[in-house]
Specification:
Blueprint: H1 2-9, H2 19-42, H3 47-69, H4 73-102, H5 110-131, H6 133-147, H7 164-171, H8 182-203, H9 206-218, H10 225-240, H11 243-260, H12 265-278, H13 289-297, H14 301-330, H15 338-345, H16 350-356, H17 358-374, H18 377-399, H19 404-446, H20 448-459, H21 464-479, H22 484-494, H23 496-501, H24 506-519, H25 528-537, H26 541-551, H27 553-564, H28 575-597, H29 606-619, H30 624-643
Length: about 675
């Protein structure tokens, strides 16, 4: 029997401690995925039933996954019991849905309260197990605030207080808010299909293909593995929905490579952290942020991804230049690494690799094209996943025929693993978004969100610049320790309305708070991405964090430019005008990095550093005349550096024959 269970579990995953529980989890995942796919395409369930299927199903899947991973019988039994509770809650809401929405919408009975409390506790526990204490503690503080509002001091925090029955009702049933509110519907109908698409990319070998392309783009450069990390983590962070998960997965490959060719552990960890974080603001998927902005603002998807193009280019071009500059400064040349050269020699030509992954290009082009045309993200993601899987299976049939039985077995394995991985990804994101939904609804019901906007305006004296600074600090504070999707939802509720009230364009306001919520993942003292990367690299956490702040400098500066120069986002500007200001912004942040690095074509003298400061400030200034002055200063310093460079730096990078430095000089290599 165990052999049968192991064989069946192999259709879902290679990592199975308890085969029968893995099979059960896989079966539930299949039902979960099929239910979502049918709902997204045909809308056969009422909204309330769809949301309990999503949130309750997410809790059920998380409990089963914890049971399957448990090493002791008591822990396993506890989580199986919690999974059974989740199943009962789903059944109850399905059966009582009509009565809840027509007869007991304002007069819940005792059973309703017990079920709502059970769902709340289950969701809080699931969020703790998947994301740590931060998210659940924030929600708990929100509930306490809702209950004890009348005890708060007069002013911003005071409200009339909510009775315990109303408070519990707002968390899920019978009001279908909180856990089962609009954010849960957004997660179920929009975010989950993209988690399924990401799982399909993994199952069909597209993730390995992306890593392969990253090797080809960055592997032969001076910075080598650092450029590989920038490209691959940017691509993967774009679809993963979690910067931390991306650091853990791609960082396990790229960080040891960076250390091997001579980069310091802290620098290697910082590069991976910044690159993974940037994926969340990179179109066309933007780590799901684009669809959250659509759901919260109503701005068409096409406008959002167009607005994000230049900021993402600035972010990654700056990072690529920064790691190259570091490699040149400390004398590294990863292009001479023999092991990397051998790896390239063993790979297929690029054209052949692309041809083998035609399914990837067709699915992604279809996804972006239809999203821009229809603005129906959930349905389009499901269709793109179907195209991806179908074309991959067709390739297997045409070029890898091993008999009908083998093809059938591989098809079942592909579908099973896509559903299993997609359900787990979707459950993890779904539960954290649902828990944040509790806080969002409490803030809305008590009026705190609106009062906070007025308070921020009053604190800033009605002036835009002080308000931007206040909003930036608030976004960094609220985003600490949260996944990007949850952080954006929270700061969009609390920070964006105040910016809009002072005339900031809606899309600029939401991208402002998104960037700061996202960049909080590399901001000390929490810096969750840097924490994971430092553990992988074996470097110091705070040192890694401070290097990451410098490498992620555009993430802190660009949001202010969105307000000063909304043209960068394409707001009422031609493509040429937007490109001009984007180029100025890129040169501005590069100038700051050169000052901090102390190196361009050769080490900087003190006068050159002094001249580059007004160059950077001028290039980042809103006025065109200031940018022209800044450009002149930058050009003068760069020209002088080029003319006075030594023979060993005859180009931006030393001659091809420079040996690889496996132990670079300590100096300020970790600065």
């Amino acid at each position: 029997m165990r052999r049968l269970a192991t064989r069946l579990a192999g259709y879902f995953t290679d990592d199975s401690n308890n085969p029968w529980l893995t099979v059960l989890l896989g079966a539930v995942a299949l039902v979960f995925v099929v239910g979502h796919v049918i709902q997204v395409i045909y809308y056969f369930l009422p909204s309330g039933q769809f949301k309990i299927m999503h949130v309750g199903g997410a809790a059920l899947i998380i409990m089963l996954s914890l049971a399957a991973a448990a090493k002791t019988a008591p822990v396993r039994l506890v989580h199986l019991a919690l999974a059974a509770v989740a199943a009962v809650i789903i059944w109850y809401v399905f059966v009582e849905h009509q009565a809840l929405t027509t007869q007991r919408s304002f007069l819940p009975n005792q059973t309703d309260m017990v079920v709502a409390t059970g769902l709340l506790l289950l969701a809080l526990y699931a969020a703790i197990r998947e994301w740590g204490w931060v998210v659940s503690l924030i929600a708990i503080f929100g509930l306490l605030y809702g209950y004890f509002g009348q005890s708060m001091p007069e002013g911003l925090l005071y409200h009339g207080g909510l009775s315990l029955r109303r408070l519990i009702g707002y968390t899920s049933i019978p009001y279908f808010g909180g856990l089962l509110g609009s954010l849960a519907e957004l997660s179920a109908g929009t975010i989950f299909p993209f988690m399924l698409f990401a799982a399909g990319l993994q199952a069909t070998g597209c993730v390995a293909f992306i890593m392969d392309v990253a090797y080809r783009i960055g592997g032969r450069t001076r910075a080598g593995p650092a450029q590989i990390a920038v490209v691959s983590s940017g691509f993967m962070g774009m679809v993963s929905g979690s910067s931390v998960a991306n650091v853990a997965s791609t960082g396990a490959l790229t960080i040891p490579l960076m250390k091997r060719v001579g980069f310091k552990p802290e620098f290697a960890g910082a590069v991976e952290s910044v690159a993974s974080t940037g994926g969340q603001i990179t179109p066309p998927v933007m780590g799901l942020a684009a669809f959250l902005i659509v759901g919260m603002t109503g701005i068409p998807y096409g406008e959002i991804i167009i607005a994000a193009v230049f900021p993402a280019l600035i972010y990654y071009l700056y990072l690529m230049l920064a790691v190259h500059l570091r490699a040149v400064k400390v004398g590294l040349d990863a292009s001479q690494d023999e092991e990397l050269t051998k790896e390239f020699a063993a790979r297929d030509p690029l054209w052949l690799a692309c041809l083998k992954h035609t399914h990837f290009f067709v699915a992604v082009v279809y996804l972006v094209w239809v999203l821009i045309a229809t603005n129906l993200p959930g349905r389009t993601a499901v269709q793109a996943t179907g195209i991806l899987l179908a074309l991959f299976l067709l390739r297997q049939v045409l070029f890898h025929w091993r008999g009908l039985g083998t093809i059938l077995d591989n098809t079942l394995r592909l579908l099973g693993r896509t559903a299993y991985d997609g359900a787990l990804r979707g459950a993890q994101i779904g539960i954290v978004v649902a828990v944040i939904g509790v806080l969002v609804d409490i803030f809305a019901v008590t009026g705190f969100a609106q009062k906070l906007s007025f308070f921020m305006l009053e604190l800033a004296g009605g002036q835009l610049l002080p308000l931007l600074l206040v909003a930036a600090v608030a976004c960094l504070a609220f985003g600490l320790g949260l996944p990007t999707s949850a952080a954006y939802i929270l700061v969009a509720l609390l920070g964006a309305p105040a910016l809009v009230q002072l005339g900031v364009p809606l899309i600029a306001a939401h991208l402002f708070v998104l960037f700061f919520a996202n960049i909080s993942a590399i901001t000390p003292p929490v810096a969750v991405c840097c924490l994971v990367a430092a553990k992988i690299a074996g470097g110091g956490f705070f040192r890694t964090s401070f290097i990451a702040v410098r490498l992620g400098l555009p993430g802190f500066i660009l949001p202010f430019l969105f307000v000063a120069h909304p043209e960068i986002l394409g707001v009422e500007a031609s493509l040429a005008y937007a490109a001009l200001w984007a180029a100025m912004a890129l040169l501005g942040v590069v100038a700051l990095n050169v000052i901090l690095e102390g190196y361009l074509f050769r080490p900087l003298g003190w006068l050159e550093r002094v001249l580059l400061l007004p160059a950077a400030l001028g290039l980042l200034h809103p006025a065109l005349w200031a940018s022209m002055i800044g450009l002149s200063f930058f050009a003068a310093v760069a020209g002088w550096q080029w003319m006075t460079r030594g023979p060993q730096t005859a180009q931006l990078g030393s001659p091809k024959g420079t040996p690889t430095v496996t132990n670079p000089p300590s100096g300020d290599g970790n600065t």
